[in-house]
Amino acid sequence: MENKFDLAAFHLIKQLYLEPYEKMAPGLIDIVFKSMILGESKEMVSKVNMHLSGKGEAIYVTVCKAYSRIQQYKSALIADVEYFNFSGFKRKNSSPFCLKMLIEAERGKRWNIRELLELRNGTNLPVIIFGGGEECHHDLDPDPFYKKE
User: Fold this and answer.
1) Other CB atoms within 10 A of residue 89 CB
2) What DSSP element (H or E) covers 139?
3) Could you give the strand order of the β-sheet that contains 111-112, starting from the edge strand earlier in sequence?
4) pLDDT at 104 (0 to 100)
5) Which residues does 30 contact at the CB level (< 8 Å), separation at least 6?
6) What's the start-to-end Cα distance of the chain, in Å?
7) Can you give the residue ranges of every domain in the chain?
8) pLDDT tens for residues 89-127?
9) Is the pLDDT of residue 2 over 60?
10) Backbone angles phi, psi at 92, to 5 degrees
11) How does DSSP assign 66-79, residue by residue?
C-alpha cells in the first residue's frame, strides 16, 4: 500500500499552529510543507532558525508529532477504538501538563476520545493533536484492549 501525504492533516496543523509564525516569517509554511514531503528536516530547521531565531527544532518536532497524532486518531476512528494512553518519557523540559498526564497513565488511566477532544493543555492547541503543546514528544496511543470498568 502506498503511503500518501495527508494534505488535510497538514492544513489543520497550518491553521491551528503555523499561521501565527507565518506572519513573523513569511514563507515558513512552504518551507515546512516541502520538508515534510521531501523528508528534509535538517534543511527545514536551518531555514526556520534563520527567520525565527532558533525556533526551527521546536516547530519541526511540533508539526511532525501533530501529524503523527492525527494519523493515530484517524486510525482509531476507523478501528472504533475509544480509549487512548498518554505515553513517553519524562524529560527535563516536559510541561507540567505532560508530567500530570504521564503520572495518571502510569496509574492506569486511559482517556476516552471525547475527553481528549475537550481537554486543554494550557494553550489553545487541542490535546488530541498537539499533546502537551509545543515540542511535546509524548504519544497518544490508541488502546484497543482497554475496557472501562
Assistant:
1) 8
2) strand 139-142
3) 111-112, 83-87, 139-142
4) 96
5) none
6) 37
7) 7-72, 83-142
8) 998 889 999 999 999 999 999 999 999 988 888 888 899
9) no
10) -65, -25
11) HHHHHHHHHHHHHH
